[in-house]
Amino acid sequence: MPPALLRGLLLFVIAIILGFALMGFEMLASRYLYPYFGGGINTWASLIATVLIALMLGYLIGGALVDRTMSPRLCGALLIVAGLYLFSIPLWVDPLFGWILRSVGDGMTGIILAATALLLLPLTLISVFTPFAVRLLLTSVSFGGRLVGYVYGVSTVGNVLGTLVTTFTLVPMFGSRALTMAFAAITALCGLVMILCAKFLRGERA
Amino acid sequence: MNPSALFAAVSALLIVSSGPAAAQSGLLEKRESIYNNIFIFGDTDSVTMTFGHNKRYYTESGMKLSDPGALTVTYTQLMTVGLAYTPKAERILEIGLGGGRTVTYLNASLPDSAILAVEIDKDVVDLAKKYFGFKESGRMRAVVADGRSFLMRDNDRWDIILIDAYRGPFVPFHLLTKEFYALVKSRLAPGGVVVQNIEPSTMLFDSATATLNSVFPSVDLYDGGGNVVAVGYDGPSMRQSDLVARATAMQSRYNLRYDLRTIVAGRRVLSRPTGKILTDDFAPVETMRAIEQNNEKWKDQTEAPR
Which residues from A are below 8 Å from B172, CB to CB? Predict the structure, then answer.
C-alpha cells in the first residue's frame, strides 16, 4: 500500500473514532445534566449550543495551529489532554453541578455553565483534529475540495455512530461513568498514536 | 372474567391510553409548552388533561364538572394513603401537579395543612388553574421547577412527599434513581412518608420498586387499577392493625371522602423486590420500558400485610 494511502487511512480511522467519542460524550453529558437541571428541551438546547461552540473553537484553533506547525505531535498532545480531562469528570461533576445549582440556579445560565465545564475544553481539543487531518493530507490543491469533503464526511459517520450506538446500546449496557472512562481512554489513545506516528503523518520517512 | 375485573381492565386501558375516549369529546385547548404537548378535552360533564406523545394521548388528570370534589381516576384516591402512615400531615409536597386534583382534594380535606406543588411546566400550572379548579392560597402554592432540582436547593422537611411526575407515559429517569430517593428521604420529617404513582406494565416497574426499597426499608403497594401507588417509609414494616388504627384516627378527625380505612385494606407489602436497582450512573429506563409485562405480575413480589 502506498504511504499516502496508508496515511489517509490512519487519519480517517482516527477521525471516525474521535467523531464517535465526541457525539457519544454529548449524549452522556445529558445523563450528567438531567439530575441537576431537568430533562427538557432547555437542557438539550444548552448542551447542543455548547457542543457547537466547542467545534467552532476547535476548528479555529486547529486551523491556526496546523498552518504554523504542521505538528501531529502537538495535535496528539492536545488529544491526550482532552482524554485526561474526560477521565477526571466523574471525580468533580457532582460537587460542581450541586454548587452551580445552588448558586446560579437551573435557568439557561446555570445549564450553559454546567455544560461548559463538562464539555467545552475536551470537545474543543478533540475538534482541533479536523483541520490537522485536512492539512496533513493536503498534498495538492486540485484535490482539496474532495479531501475536505472526505474528512468531514468520515468524521460525521463517526458522529452518527457515536450518537446512536452510545444511546441505544452502550448506555443501557455499561452506565455513564464507565463509558466516560472508555471515551477518555480512546481519545487519549488516538493522541498517542498521532505522537508515535508523527513522522509518518508528516510525510517524512519513518 | 368477573364484571369488576373487566371494569378494572377497561379503566386501566383508559388511564394508560385514552385515545379513543378522548377523541369523543371536544378539544377545548391545545398548548405546546417547553416540555409537553398539552390537550384539554371536555364534554358536558367532564374535562381531562392529556399529554400527546407518539400520537397517543396520556391522561394526566380528569374532573367531573357536576362533582368537582371527586377524584375520578382511581389511583389519585390512593395517593392520599400517605395520611394513614404519618403521625402528622402538616406539610405536604407534591412533585408533578398535572391538573392538581390530588392536592386540591387534600387542601379541601385538611384545613391545617400547608401544601406545595412543584411542577416543571408553567403551562400545566396555568391550565390546572383554568380548567381544574386549582387555586393558590396561603395554604397551597405551586412552584415551577424540576422536582429534583427543587429538592436539592430547598432544605425544608415534609411530612408527605407525593411523586406523580410523568412525561406522557414515562417517569423521567432522574426521578427514579437511588440518588433521587436518598434526596427525597433527606427532605422528610421524622415519620415522613413518600408516595409515588408507578405504572406497572413494563419491566421498569420492578426496578422502580426495588430502587425505592433500597432507600426506604419498608415499601407498600396499592393497586389502582392500571397504576400502582407505592409508599416508602423508614423503619420496619408497620403492623396492619397499627396502620388501620392510624387510618381510623385520621378518618374520624378529617372525615375524608375517600375513606382511609378502605384504602389501607388494599395494602400489599413489597417483600421480594426482584428488579435491578437504578442509579444516576446506570438507569437504562428506555430499555426496561420496552419490555412489557403482565399488569398483575407485580403482586408476585408482595405479600399480605401482617
Answer: 34, 38-39
Q: How does pLDDT run across B196-227, given as a tens digit for each residue?
A: 999 888 888 999 999 999 999 999 999 998 89
Cβ neighbours of residue B255 closer than 8 Å, sequence gap 6 or more: none
Q: Total structural domains in chain B?
A: 2
B35/B95 same-domain check: no
Residue A48 lies in a domain: yes
Q: Would you say residue A18 lies in a domain?
A: yes
Residue that finishes a domain, picked among B12, B31, B64 = B64
Hey, of B149, B154, B180, which one would you mutate to test binding to chain A, going by the most A CBs within 10 A of its CB? B149
CA atoms within 13 A on the CB side of A92: 10
Q: Contact, B284 vs A178, CB < 8 A?
A: no
Q: Give the ranges where B89-230 is alpha helix by DSSP (H).
A: 101-109, 122-131, 147-153, 178-186, 204-215
| Residues A1-56: tens digit of each pLDDT | 788 889 999 999 999 999 999 999 999 999 899 888 887 788 999 999 999 999 99
Asked whether this complex has an ipTM greater than 0.85, the answer is no
Mean pLDDT of A108-114: 94
Residue B18 — very low, low, confident or very high, per pLDDT cuts 50/70/90? very low
Q: Which residues of chain A lie closer than 8 angstroms to B278, CB-CB?
A: none
Domain count within chain A = 1
Mutate to test the interface with B, among A101, A165, A167 (most CBs of B within 10 A): A101
Which chain B residue shows the shortest CA-CA distance from A104? B153
Q: Do B163 and B205 fall into the same domain? A: yes
Residue B69 falls within a domain, yes or no?
A: no
Q: Which tops the pLDDT comparison, B227 or B2?
A: B227
**Is residue B38 located within the same domain as residue B137?**
no
CB contact under 8 A, A41 and B35: yes
Q: CB pairs below 8 Å between A and B: how many?
A: 57
> Could you tell me the residue range of the domain that residue A38 belongs to?
3-200
Q: Please give the Cα distance from B34 to A191 (Å, whole number).
A: 40
| CB nearest B149 (choices: A41, A106, A172) | A106
Q: Which chain B positions have a beta carbon within 8 Å of A42's beta carbon?
A: 34
Where in the sequence is the domain holding B79, given as residue range(s)? 74-303
Measured between CA atoms, how close is A137 to chain B, in angstroms?
40
Judge: B174–A177 Cβ closer than 8 Å, yes or no.
Answer: no
